[in-house]
Amino acid sequence: MQVTRLTFDGFRNLKTGQIEPCPGVNVIVGENAQGKTNLLEAIWLFTGTKSFRSAKDSELIAFDKEQSKLSMQFHAGGREQEAEITIQNRRMATLNGIKQSSAVKLAGIFCGIVFSPVHLSLIKGGPIERRRLIDAAYCQLRPSYVKSLSEYARILAQRNALCKARDTGEAAAEMLDLWDRQLAQAGCRILHARQRYLQHMAPVARGIYQGLSSGKEEFDLRYTSTVPILPEETPAEMAAKFYEELRIRRRDDFAAGFTTVGPHRDDMDVYINGCSAKSFGSQGQQRSAVLAIKLAEAALLEKVTGEKPIALLDDVMSELDHSRQEYILNHIKDWQVFITCCDPNPLKALQGGQKLYVKDGQVSTI
Ligand SMILES: Nc1ncnc2c1ncn2[C@@H]1O[C@H](COP(=O)(O)OP(=O)(O)O)[C@@H](O)[C@H]1O
Ligand SMILES: [Mg+2]
User: Fold this and answer.
1) Domain shared by 101 and 6, yes or no
2) I need a surface site. Which of 107, 136, 137, 142 has the fewest CB within 10 A?
């Protein structure tokens, strides 16, 4: 996977322009609030997923413009391809000149991973961020997973409405049973996908974390489900357990006014040396844990797609000691990388890369 050209017009604070990245490491240098992260965000949108800053699409349009237009030439699947994204009322996309029904259709075509300081919320934040991380990573591996997620959300909203209405009549009970069965069917696809993903990702992340900490620290990752499933169970077995759990909890759910059990309530815990990274991890350890997860995500993408994903690393070097910085630079040296920084000194070891300077939204090579 390689970006050969990116043009931007009306995107955040970026002045209309284009870049022609090199195949190796592209270091994006500039002072604070100049547009470095905005440039990474523009590239990221071509993965078909939402902005990693979880901004509304309308926030991406430059304050003084009506629309944003991004276009990208990239090498993927053994050929040159071209995609365009237009953000107006909604985000639209074309791929190789063909209009797509939605920008989500780019998922699985252009693949990458992104690390940004906002991802530290993966450790520090609530379960919703962690669930989003697994789901977004799995969407790039299996784009059809997007549909499973939206189907689950749709059924869940209907079941929740019924719980909220607290209708104890016979017709409502029949309806609830119907939603329970449907939710169990849709939910088991999510449970199974997440289990499979973590089964593959966790050992890779563990190895990377070990490298990052020079073998001094142990990393572990565990999925905690509100449904008592076992990782090796089939989707059908998971559905049966989920349905049973929904039945048991009906009374509780009516009291709460929403569905209290299911993949929408699950979490993932990260441990360093057996202790919760959230409660006990240092800044550097938390940062390393997120990086290990992100680099593992890239390794799995490469394994499944056969291509090296691009890596977008926003302000990755701060709070990491010299040996951790070196490990990362060594780990990513064969990928196309976009790495932002205020101070390019820690990146001196990188050979043959290109520097892009960003000042007041103007991107240049000098
Ligand atoms: N929609 C927008 N239109 C114009 N400017 C924007 C928009 N969104 C953000 N900005 C500006 O972009 C700047 C931040 O850019 P960012 O890429 O985060 O900086 P950094 O170089 O520190 O990574 C801020 O000055 C902010 O006001
Ligand atoms: Mg930034």
Assistant:
1) yes
2) 142
